[in-house]
Design brief:
Strand content: under 5%
Shape: elongated
Number of helices: 4
Length: about 140
């Protein structure tokens, strides 16, 4: 198979689009990170002051969570499968949009590269007819 055929097969697959969508999502979230860090740093003293009270409150709630855990775990496991499918579909859809934006010139360049990477095909050897040498 040619490289162009392999690339075409890859770009027509849903996992490819899901991967592209996940990458685009990650880039989007990483771009938001510096602002989120600035906000947390500005609230650092406030968060540190509230920490002891919140710790006590969470310790009191922990006992209730332990009792409910088996039922909640089953419920979350049921929801997880549906949510994973939904996220996969969202990433695939997002990936299709990202890929469609970047196609065009890039696709043409990739096609040119793949065609240039094709191994050369040997030309058949032409048989020449020899005439017998005259004995002297």
């Amino acid at each position: 198979m040619t490289l162009a055929t392999e690339v075409k097969k890859l770009t027509d697959s849903k996992p490819f689009y899901a991967f592209a969508g996940a990458g685009d999502f990650a880039v989007e979230k990483l771009r938001e990170l510096p602002e989120q860090l600035r906000q947390l740093q500005s609230r650092r003293s406030e968060l540190a002051r509230d920490l002891p009270d919140k710790t006590r409150a969470y310790a009191d709630k922990a006992e209730g969570f332990v009792r409910e855990f088996p039922d909640k775990a089953r419920e979350y496991a049921d929801q997880l499968s549906n949510k994973a499918t939904e996220v996969y579909e969202d990433f695939a859809s997002r990936g299709r949009k990202v890929v469609s934006k970047t196609t065009g010139e890039a696709a043409l360049e990739l096609e040119e590269v793949s065609e240039a990477a094709e191994p050369p095909v040997a030309e058949p050897v032409k048989k020449t007819t020899r005439t017998p040498r005259a004995k002297a």
